[in-house]
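Lesson 9: reading folded outputs for more than one chain in a single document. The general rule is that every protein is listed as its sequence immediately followed by its structure tokens, and records are never interleaved. Here is the first one.
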Amino acid sequence: MYRSARRPTMYFIGVTTRQSSIMRVFPEWARRLGLGDCAIVGMDFVPHDKPEAYREAVRFIKEDENSLGALVTTHKVDLLGACRDLFDELDPYATLLGEVSSISKRDGALVGHAKDPITSGLALAAFLPPDHWASTGAEAFIIGAGGSSMALTWHLMNAEDCPSRIVVSNRSTPRLDEMRRLHKQLATGVPVEHRHAPRPEQNDGILSGLKAHSLVVNATGLGKDAPGSPLTRNADFPDHGLVWDFNYRGELRFLEQAKAQSAARHLHIEDGWVYFIHGWTQVIAEVFDIDIPSTGPGFDELSRIAAATRASQQSSQHA
């Protein structure tokens, strides 16, 4: 049972929301953006929670006057599957991908957006060299078949410069089947392989077959929502590879594995921090119905505020 919000409130639907930097960053951003007296509140669910749990939360947001909307992580596909009838509008990405990462209200209507095709593209563009795929013939290996993975594959398949091959692996088959149907529908001509990999050793095998300069993405919750890595300690990253972990907090074992090989294999390593900033600013703009730039001085200032708040949090944790 949820309590009515006393002031304009945005929710964070996740797994371990209290540990997220957004709980400290949001108040600073709210002041910078002139949002007034508002709040952010976490709603924690276990991965693949019961449909009725998602329905209770979404119905509450829909009916509570001061509840303006939410950002959704981890549960994007499951939440929409359980609550599709509660939404009055879905954007084209949400309909295509079968996920919702942003919940907002417009003129009494509950609106769902899938922002990941936009935010993953913005985050990738921040470190991907120009004409990377065409100049190297490199491939992309995405571990995990959740909503963020689906969105990233959509972006990669529809970009002007595309990987020579995309491989997606997952521990279970239902999400792979969903992704296979999406990719068949897109039919962009980019070869895509869907691998069932219930054991980390199987991901190691896929990794070993990648070309140099390939992109390797940890799109699982391992290292943040759950301990571990989708790879074993024997995994070898591709020479001159780009290694991207969607996580930016937690034990981050996948990133530690990459860092151990960074010098020998000339790796470029990215965590999920820039993705975090783009993801939140895009959804805050929807929830509060304001414009937030994705580049330029305004975005740079929000990035600076977030980085300073993150550094302060890390300092206090190690004090």
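And here is the second record, again sequence then tokens.
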Amino acid sequence: MTRKPPSILWLRRDLRISDNPSLLAACAKGGPVIPVFIHDDSVAHLGAAPAWRLGLSLADLANTLSDKGSRLILRKGDALDTLLAVIEETGAQSVHWSRLYDPEAIARDKAVKAALKERGITATSHDAHLLFEPWTVETQQGGFYKVYTPLWRAVKDRDVPEPEAAPSRIPAPDSWPLSDRLANWALGAAMHRGAEVCLPHQCVGEAAALERLQAFVDGPIKDYATGRDLPATSGTSNLSENLTHGEISARQCWHSGLGALHAGADAAEAWMKELVWREFAYHLTYHTPRILTANWREEWDAFPWNEDATRPEVIAWKQGRTGVPFVDAAMREMYVTGRMHNRGRMIVASYLTKHLMTHWKIGHDWFADCLTDWDPASNALGWQWAAGCGPDATPYFRIFNPETQIKKFDPGHDYIHRWIAEGTAAPSATALSYFDAIPRSWRLSPDDSYPDPVVGLQEGRKRALAAYENRAF
């Protein structure tokens, strides 16, 4: 009997083997499956922390595939050229991948699909990154949603397909095409010494992600509605890094949350709403891709934000040395762990865009370089929400007060003490590790004095409000 031709599994942000429709479809073809990850422009343009974290995920996936008798083939170059080369080398007759929704990925994938089909190669994309495809969620008028709450109401009772198990086996070819060595890609090069500090705080790979989900559902999810706002506690799932790289699927998360809800954990719905907030980010990215690079509300284009990233107060913000403890603690958490508590993200974004009157793109781009859970859609929506120029945004005149936020959400200053060493007789290990993670060129030491505020909170608030009053929205 003639063996069926191979299928290529083109992996991107779906670095798992369970609940991976592309992998299952490739296996269903009956021939060998060749998993391929391509280092193309989308990878080359990643910031330091996301690129490093991607490398960790690829290494873990390679081990997982090896345990299944398969391999991860790594190639660097243009996506279409690389796929055509692997097809030529292996005789593959089909290519499967999971859909992405940013405009660059859509354009690339359309071109790849058309070129492959022209050559007689079956090219199939699958839904694996989201709960709901963006074009399947419409208002009663037939348009897309511009406000989150109506979208939540529209999808909360929809059936979400049950997650599918990993295939029992992944058929291997008789001979494998050549692969690059992951180490030669040097994905972590731009992290420098920060990688060593950040590594213990990463939860890498599919198995670890599923364990993290189960631990969350077994405990913190029952108090999530309140615990999510307390940065000093372990009240959130911390699955953002795993969702970003597709080490776990949104469907696996949704059904775990649904199970907890049905078991009596009412707060699970609040967590499921956060999963749909992620859907909202991609819904908007698909329908209005300008959200990734420009003010979603075009009337904000003339707003007089400062766009000079070299100003001393912006440098202080980046360094976690603004003199505002909640802001500084959150920034330092990011440098040590690669992530930032969501309450902290709101505070630092509001402070930069309102108290410092700085364009949200400066913060957006900085996060894109520093977050190991960086997600293009969520990052853009989060920053525009905080700045007031995005869809369903916080009212532009709402300015978070970091002092009152601390009193409300960190009254014992546990979060502050965890991340700020200056002026403390016995700094915590996490606070000290910040100085090991940051660039030496910053020349900062735990022996430094803690700085005075770069701008008074009342002064910054009044300045922002004056700017808003002089702007016709």
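What the second record shows: The chain has three domains: 7-127, 130-162+193-287, 298-469.
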